Amino acid sequence: MTSNPTNHSSLSILLSNANGLKQHSNELFYLIHNKNIDIALITETHLSKSSNMNFNGYTTIRADHPDGTSHEGSAIIIRSSLFYNQMQNTNKPYLQAANIKIKINHLNVTISSAYFPLGQQITEPKLQSFLQSLDIDNAISILTKSIQNAVSNSSSHNSNNILPKYHTALPPFLVNLIKAKRQARSLWQRTKYPRHKNIHNHPITDLKT
């Protein structure tokens, strides 16, 4: 870690789910050298407290599972010659994230290798807290727009009004709003009553706020 403000004009970044970093370390080492990778963002590292994992010419920043056993976890593997600031890691059962700040094209950029384990529900306040810890001013706004786009796309492609399985990870209040919107739309399409149109528009307004 260093506080040197040296600027980097461009970086080559790799994102990979290792499904066990120790078991696939040789493959990863070959890949980052062969492809001249500057920063590798690795999830499912499966490293324990006693695990040692180093790559020649690179620094490894780990965010292991908080129980210290070899499952889940994430890491950033960064070229040792690069200048960056290491941020506080997140080590929670529902989220493990290794975080750094680095200057690219004279802009301070936050890079996070974050892993959200399957079966662990992350609530909206927890997610907001994580994004705020990264000091990203517009992160929550971007997240909200992404959710709204996902809702819009699913509405236009799902004629049976069935909520796609990948939306089940959304916060419950969003799931309920999406269902209410679709039910109201179906009612208005059948009747065309102005009152039913107003009911249909109400959940849409809630989703946009």
TrEMBL record:
It comes from the Eukaryota. This is Tigger transposable element-derived protein 6-like. The lineage of its organism: Eukaryota, Metazoa, Ecdysozoa, Arthropoda, Hexapoda.
